[in-house]
Design goal:
Elements lengths: L7 E5 L6 H14 L4 E5 L13 H7 L4 E5 L4 E5 L9 H6 L8 E5 L8 E5 L15 E6 L11 E4 L3 H16 L1
Parallel strand pairs: 1-5, 1-6, 2-5, 6-7, 7-8
Antiparallel strand pairs: 3-4
Helix pairs in contact: 1-4
Length: 176
């Protein structure tokens, strides 16, 4: 069961569609409206936020299963997961301090059973239908004439304020 304390909203799309670009605009939009947002980003690449040569990097490479780096301005926890194929979204969401967040945006994890906004651009050459599942609540696209179910909202991917207002309304509905 996904963390019910903090609502999760997925932002899913094919690579190169603009997930990160939209989130870079959406997060400040939500913040300006008082929404405290966490983010979980899925990647298919090997992740290393440690700097080679720094003590934390050296100690993690020495075999520490978990390494925390902390300062007065931030802290980060690196956890080694060599035996896991894919990270567990429920577990990752539970790592957040839900007392300091209103929602968690999830970039990727397209097969998870959480509400999602799907991004679509015709020029990707990919099929729209292959990303739509029962959990897609909106499609943000540069083509507003795309054929989708009436239950799915269509948003202009280039109008972050409209996408933001949709997210705010979604969040309000989660809290009721």
């Amino acid at each position: 069961m996904i963390n019910k304390k903090t609502p999760l909203l997925g932002i899913v799309a094919y690579s190169g569609t603009g997930k990160t670009t939209l989130l870079k605009q959406l997060i400040p939009y939500l913040r300006q409206r008082g929404v405290r947002t966490g983010l979980i980003k899925h990647t298919h690449h090997d992740v290393d936020v440690d700097t080679p040569g720094k003590d934390s990097f050296v100690l993690r490479k020495a075999g520490a299963d978990q390494t925390m780096v902390a300062s007065s301005s931030r802290w980060a926890l690196m956890t080694e997961t060599p035996e896991q194929d894919e990270p567990n979204l429920e577990y990752l969401a539970a790592r957040f301090d839900s007392n300091n967040l209103d929602m968690i945006l999830v970039e990727g994890f397209k097969h998870e059973e959480i509400d999602k906004i799907m991004l679509y651009r015709k020029e990707t050459g990919k099929l729209l239908e292959s990303l739509i599942d029962l959990h897609v609540i909106a499609v943000a696209s540069d083509d507003l004439s795309i054929p989708v179910s009436q239950a799915i909202s269509i948003l202009n991917i280039n109008e972050v304020d409209k996408v933001g207002e949709f997210v705010l309304q979604w969040l309000k509905n989660q809290q009721n």
